Amino acid sequence: MCLAIPVKVVELLEAEQALVDVGGVRKEVDVSLVDGVQAGDYVILHVGFAINRLDETEAQKTLAMLREMGVQPEAAA
Amino acid sequence: MKYVDEFRDGKVARSLAQTIAAEVRPERRYHLMEFCGGHTHAISRYGLRDLLPPEIHFIHGPGCPVCVLPIGRIDSAIELARDHGVILCSYGDTLRVPASERMSLLRAKAEGADIRMVYSSADALKIARDNPGREVVFFAIGFETTTPPTAVALRQARAEGLKNFSVFANHVLTPSAIQNILESPEVRELGTIPLDGFIGPSHVSTIIGSRPYEFFAEEFQKPVVIAGFEPLDVLQSVLMLVRQLNEGRAEVENQFSRAVTREGNLKAQALVAEVFELRDRFEWRGLGEVPYSALRIREAYRDFDAEVRFDLPYRSVPDHKACECGTILRGLKQPQDCKVFGTVCTPDNPLGSCMVSAEGACAAYYTYGQFKGSAEVAEAS
Amino acid sequence: MSANPKPLKRGYIRPLDLKHGKVEMSHGGGGRAMAQLIDELFQQAFDNPWLRQANDQALLTRPEGRIVMATDSHVVSPLFFPGGDIGSLSVHGTINDVATSGARPLWLSAGFILEEGFPLADLKRIVDSMAAAAREAGVPIVTGDTKVVERGKGDGVFINTTGVGVVPDGIEISGDRARPGDRILVSGYLGDHGVAIMSLRENLSFSTNIVSDSAALHDLIAAMLRAAPDIHCLRDPTRGGLASTLNEIARQSGVGMAIREEDIPVREEVEAACELLGLDPLYVANEGKVVAICPAASADALLAAMHIHPLGQDAAIIGEVIEDSHGFVQMETSFGGRRNVDWLSGEQLPRIC
Asked: With an 8 Å Cβ cutoff, are A44 and B63 in contact?
C-alpha cells in the first residue's frame, strides 16, 4: 500500500515543515513525525508527511548485498 | 532519483533472478503472499513474474486499504456530503470506488455534492480554516502508514480549536489482517492453500517496526521478510524467503533496513496512541468482520469524530454474489478463477474489492498481465 | 457648387478598458458593445484581410487537394500555465489535429464563450497569445464568434477552434493503417504538459521547472513527410497520453504493439512528479508531441529528419507493430519483463496507495 517516495530535505521551514526535493521537483511537507530532521537528510514522503528517515549506511549495505547476491555461484548450488 | 534508481537496476535484477532460479528446489513451489499494494504494483509494473522461475508463486493479500473498505462506509461518506452538506475531503483513490445504488464519490460530486480531492490531511485542515461557515470532514483511510498523518491533523485541529473540522476514520491494522488470513481454517488445518511465507509491507513497517511480525513467524511457522518498495527489494526478499524455506527457517528478516528498525517510528506510534484506540471489530470487504483490526477516535478527541458529530447509521452491504474476492484475498483462488473477472467485473465497472483499486489483485492482473493468456498462467501455478 | 459637407460630429466612444474592465453580457449581445469588443480586441490582435472585411464569414479560395477539417474545444484550467495558456493551446491543438492527417493547415476559426465578469486584461492576454501562436505558425484566424454567458455558467473562457487544411497527393495517413512490422516513433519527451498543469492545481502544489510543451507541429510533420512519405499513422498523444494513443491506433488497425520502456523519453523531473503523485507518465497529456508509425524501411530516415528539427531533437524509435487480434499494447520493462499498457480507466487521479 502506501505510495511513498524517498526525498531529500533541502531546507527546514517553520511550523515543523520542510522543503524537499526529488528529481528537481520541490514540495513543502510536514516533518513533525520524524525527530531531528536536518537539511541534507533523506526521508520517506507519504501523503505530504515525512514518515521516517533513510539510513545511508544501511542503504549502501543493501546495495552491496544486492550486487553480491546477484553473482552466480561457481559450483552448482 | 536517489534511493530509487539504484534499486531499479535492470542488470542487477536479472542476475538476482538467475540466483533465485538456481536456488529454488525444482520439486516444490514457493507460495509467497505479498501484503502491500505497492508490492503488487512493483511486481506488475516491472514484469517481475517474467524474470522469476515458475516455482515462485505470488499471492496478493489484502494490502490495499481502498480495496478492503466496505461499501457501507463509502455510502456513509456519500451521505455526509449529499445529505449533511459537508465539504468532504478525500484521497484520490477513494473517489471512484463504487458504492450502493451505482453511486460513488465522483458521481455524487457530479450531482452537486461538495467533494474535494486532497493529497494530504493538512489540505483538509486548510479547507476547514478557509471555510469557517461550513462543516469539513476528512475521509481518512489507510493502514498504519497513513494513520499518523491523520493523527497530526486531529492534534492540530484541537490545538487550533477548529470547530468545523472532523474526521471519518477508517484506519485499519496490518497484523490483524495477516492473522485473519493465517487463522482461516483452510490455511491452518486443512493445508488447502499453500501459503509458505510473507513479503512484508514496506512503509507500514517503517511505522510499526519489524517486531509485530515476530509473533506470526513464531506462532504459525511462516517466514516473513520485510521488503522495500522497489523491484530490487522485492527480488532480494524473494531470495531471502526461498533460502529460509529451503533451510526450514521461520524468522522475521528485514530487507528494508534502510528505513525499518525493530521498534519502528516510536514518535509516530505514540501520537497515534494518543488520538486513536482499537475498535472491537470492523468489517473488511472480502474478509468479513475482523476483530481488533481497526481504529476509532479516542474520547479525548471525540469532538472531532465525524461518526459522533453526525448521525451516520451503518448498513453492511454484501458484495455481488459471484464475486470471489474473499477467496482471492486469502490466496485460495486467482483472478482468472472468478466467473465475472474480465466480463462483468472490469476496472471500469468493478464489482468487488480486488478490482476496485489499481493495487487490487484483479485490477493489477487485468491491467498488466492479461495479455499473457490463461495457458501461460496455468503453467506457472 | 456646394463645399464638401462637414463630417458629422461623432460622439466620443470610450475605448475598452483593457486594464480593469470586465466582460459584460452586452459584449455578447450583438450590439455596439460586441462590435467594439471584436474591433478593439480580436480584430486588433488577429488582424488579416478576412477579418478586416468584418463579415460573418470568411471567403476562401478553394485549395488543390483533399480538404481536411478538425475542431477542438478548449476548457483547460488553469487558463495560464508555464509554457502557454488556453489561447496558444487552442491554436496549437487544432493545427496539430489538422497536421496529423498529413495536411498543410491553411485557416483557423475561433469561437469564444466568455463568462460575465471575466477580466478583459486576461482576455487580452489570451487573445494576444493566440495571435502570436497563429502568426508564428503562419496560419491565420479568419473568422470567429463571441458569446457571453451569465456569471457562474462558465469557467472564465471556453474556446473552440476549427481548422482547415489540404493533404497533398500520395499521402495516406490514418489510424487504421498500422501494419505488423511497422516502427513506432515519438517526437520527444513525454508528460511535460500534464505535469506543468498539475503543478498549479490546488492541493497538489509542488514547484517544478517543467514547462508545457504546447507547440504547432505542422512544420515538423511536413519535414517528416518529406523524409518518409509512406508514414502510415500520425497522432498527437494529448489527453490520456501515449498509452491511450497507442491503444486507439491498435484497435483501429486491428494490430498489437510492442514497445520498450527504456527507449521512451521522459524527463527526470516529470518522472519524479509522477512518482510523487502516483501517476504513470505514459498516460499524462502532451501538447507538442507526435507519434508516428511507419514501415520499418523508412524508420531511420524518419528519425534522422526529426532529429534535425527543433521540435524533434529528442525523437526516438520506441517499438514495433505486431500481429495481435486482441489489440494489446505490450511493453518490455527495463527489467526485461513484460507488462500490458492498457486503456486508461476513467481519469488518472493522484493516489496514496
From this structure: no
